[in-house]
Amino acid sequence: xxxxxxxxxxxTTAAKPxxxxxxxxxxxxxxxxxxxxxxxxxxxTYCVRMGASDCTGMDISINDQPWQPCRHAVGxxxxxxxxxxxxxxxxxxxxxxxxxxxxxxxxRRCKVN
Length: 113
Prior knowledge:
By secondary structure, the protein is mainly β. The protein has one domain: Immunoglobulins (Immunoglobulin-like, Sandwich). The protein is built from no helices and 12 strands.
C-alpha cells in the first residue's frame, strides 16, 4: 500500500516552491471496507468488514464509544453491528500490531434509515 508522507516544520521563510510529497511503500494498513463512506444502511443489523495487514487483533469504535473486539474470518475482520439507532454514525477501526502498537483507520461515516 502506498502512503503519502509530508514533512512539516514550523519555520516561516520567504515564499519557496513547495517540495513534492514523498510516496512511501508501507506494508501496514487498516481500512473499513464496508459500509462504504456515506453509505445508507437500511437493515436492522449490519456486518462491518475491515481489511488489515498482518496483526494480532482488531477493534472498532462507533461514535467515539469504547473499543469493541472484532472477529477474524475468511481473510477479513468483522463486527456484527446491531441495535443501532437511525441517524449518522462514525466508525473507526484499530489494528493491533505484533509489536504492541496500534494502527488506526480513517474515520468512516454512514447513515442508518
